[in-house]
Design goal:
This protein has helices spanning about 1-15, 210-250, 260-280; strands at about 35, 50-55, 60-65, 70-75, 80-85, 90-95, 105-110, 115, 120, 125, 135-140, 155, 160-165, 175, 185. The chain has about 280 residues and is an alpha+beta fold. Strands 3-6-7-13-14-15 form a six-stranded mixed β-sheet, with no helix packed on it. The chain has a three-stranded antiparallel β-sheet with strand order 4-5-9, with no helix packed on it. It is elongated. The mean pLDDT is about 80.
């Protein structure tokens, strides 16, 4: 009897204990109610008008396509770099995970495995003889593995940010791999990676972007207007030349030296006559 009670108590403890294990369901899963996923979800969660909630201090969603191909990439970091592969894994991230990190929204190509960070010759070399007070003891030679402040190998994921949105009131938007985010601006590249905006409609409002065809049309209009002004000036000069020609060549040859004065006047009109011939 005592043994029976002991076995029953043991079974009760086993059945009452919290079981933590992966659950694999090979059939469809249908949830008709709202859902909350994350360590900060609580009993009696308030959903309001949200049917699905991710709730914790570091929200991440990963898409992993096991059939997609990858390509080798190098990610430059402060003090070093890492070589890995990207192309089959995407991640959506809400706010940076580090303490004091930026409140931003990211869409990134993300590596599936961590890779060793290699020093570029400037990575700090820590002395951990006192584990509670590590100090920098020079730098790690280029090509050697970098390390953390605890003198452990430094590893990280390769990533390429494709979309980045700032949450500040005057925040910016960065679109395209490694585009630089600047408050109050929309960026599609950086100093070493310039990109073009294509398929853009013509500007209408005062704050719209002017496209190349509009700029060219405006320049052509200005050039045509300038050409019309020059044409009018040349017409006026030509009429004056014709009037002077009549005065010079239409004057009598006789008189006291009048012909000599006419020739001097004609000599002075030669530049205008040359301009007239050039225009024609």
């Amino acid at each position: 009897m005592a043994l029976t009670r002991l076995l029953a108590a043991a079974v009760g403890l086993v059945l009452g204990a919290t079981v933590s294990a992966d659950v694999i369901k090979t059939d469809n899963l249908v949830v008709q109610g709202n859902q909350c996923l994350g360590t900060d979800c609580v009993s009696g969660e308030t959903f309001t008008d949200h049917s699905f909630v991710l709730k914790e201090n570091n929200d991440r969603i990963r898409w992993l396509d096991t059939s997609a191909t990858t390509e080798a990439v190098r990610r430059n970091l402060e003090g070093g770099y890492l070589d890995s592969e990207l192309g089959n894994s995407w991640r959506v991230e809400a706010n940076e995970s580090s303490n004091g990190g930026d409140n931003r929204f990211y869409i990134q190509l993300y590596g599936t495995d961590k890779a060793a960070v290699i020093s570029d010759g400037t990575a700090p070399d820590y002395d951990c003889s006192d584990p509670f007070n590590p100090v920098v003891n020079g730098t790690i030679p280029a090509g050697q593995p970098a390390e953390t402040m605890n003198c452990q190998p430094l590893v990280d994921y390769a990533r390429l940010t494709s979309v980045e949105l700032s949450s500040s009131a005057n925040g910016g938007v960065a679109i395209g791999g490694d585009s630089e985010l600047t408050n109050g601006e929309v960026s599609v590249g950086n100093d070493s990676a310039l990109r073009r905006l294509t398929q853009v409609a013509s500007a209408i409002a005062q704050t719209d972007v002017v496209i190349k065809s509009q700029m060219e049309a405006s320049l052509i209009s200005e050039q045509l207007a300038s050409a019309d002004d020059i044409e009018a000036m040349l017409d006026d000069i030509e009429s004056q030349i014709i009037a002077l020609e009549l005065q010079v060549f239409g004057a009598p040859n006789g008189g006291n030296g009048g012909g000599g004065a006419g020739h001097w006047l004609l000599f002075g009109l030669l530049p205008l006559l040359w301009l007239r011939s050039r225009r024609r």
